[in-house]
Amino acid sequence: MQSILVPITNERDVSFIMDFLKRIGIKAMVIDEDVSQMKARKSMISLSRKIKKNNISDIEIIEEIKAYRKSKHDSK
Fold first, then answer.
1. Bigger pLDDT: 51 vs 71
2. Handedness of CA 2, 54, 5, 19 (dihedral sign)
3. Taking Cα atoms as reference points, which of 1, 64, 52 lies closest to residue 27?
4. Per the confidence metrics, is the pTM higher than 0.85?
C-alpha cells in the first residue's frame, strides 16, 4: 500500500479534498490535528477516468486536486 501526504492550506480544504479523493476512488484520512496534512492511500480505482490505476503518482493526485478545485471555483 502506497501513501502520499497532501498539503492542506486551510480547514475548508479538508472536506473539499476528502470529497475529491472519494470521487476518484482513493481512501484518505486526516493525520495531523492541526489539519495541515492528509494521508491518502493510492491503491484504489480512479473513478473519474474509468480505468484502474494502482500506482497513481503524487504529482498526478495534486494536479487532479488543483483541476477539481479550479472547476469548483469556476462553477460558482
1. 71
2. negative
3. 1
4. no
Contact (Cβ atoms closer than 8 angstroms) between residue 55 and residue 45: no
> Measuring CA to CA, which residue among 47, 49, 56 is closest to residue 2?
56
Strand, helix or coil at 51? strand
Whether the CB-CB separation of 64 and 19 falls below 8 Å is answered with no
Residue-wise pLDDT for 13-43, tens only, equals 777 777 877 777 777 776 655 544 445 444 3
Domain edges within the chain: 3-74
Tell me how far apart the alpha carbons of residues 45 and 50 are, in angstroms, rounded to a whole number: 8
Q: Using CB atoms within 10 Å of the CB of residue 51, give its burial: 0 to 12 exposed, 13 to 18 middle, 19+ buried.
A: exposed
Strand pairing category for 37-41 and 28-30: antiparallel
